[in-house]
Design brief:
Radius of gyration: 31 Å
Strand order of the largest sheet: 1-2
Shape: elongated
Structural class: mainly alpha
CATH class: Mainly Alpha
CATH superfamily: Large-conductance mechanosensitive channel, MscL, domain 1
Largest sheet: 2 strands, antiparallel
Number of domains: 1
Strand content: under 5%
Number of strands: 2
Helix content: over 70%
Distance between the termini: 69 Å
């Protein structure tokens, strides 16, 4: 049973999937930083300084300076700004994945359209047929 498990893990598909998951997790951190540190400030600039991640609706009694204070106090909040951020993250990730898949498809198509290599020469059967023709003359 352990040998079967080792064989299963050693298969290419499982290893490829594991590498993909690890790369995907790292990529998510990069995209999160891209959105939070680069895209949001630009959007904020055009929206009059609005910070999406801090936008919320207080569903409890009481006044709070920011979403962090409200959550720390245990107040119920409707954190729609975080939802907006999640949508922006998704759109950026989806666009990057689309561009990657598009490039891979272009490379595959270019490989398929590449002219096939010329044959190395006549096969043995063709040579024997030529010899037979020559002998018959």
């Amino acid at each position: 049973m352990i040998k079967e498990f080792k064989d299963f893990i050693a298969k290419g598909n499982v290893m490829d999937m594991a590498v993909g998951i690890i790369i995907g997790a790292a990529f998510t951190a990069i995209v999160g930083s891209l959105v939070a540190d680069l895209i949001n400030p630009i959007i904020s600039l055009f929206m009059g300084g609005a910070d999406f991640s801090g936008m919320y609706a207080n569903l409890s009694d009481g006044e709070y300076a920011n979403i962090g204070a409200a959550e720390e106090a245990g107040a119920a909040v409707f954190a729609y700004g975080r939802f907006i951020m999640a949508i922006i993250n998704f759109l950026v990730i989806a666009f990057v994945v689309f561009m990657l898949v598009r490039q891979v498809n272009k490379m595959k198509k270019a490989e398929e359209e590449a002219p096939a290599a010329e044959p190395a020469g006549p096969t043995q059967e063709e040579l024997l047929a030529d010899i037979l023709k020559a002998l018959k003359k």
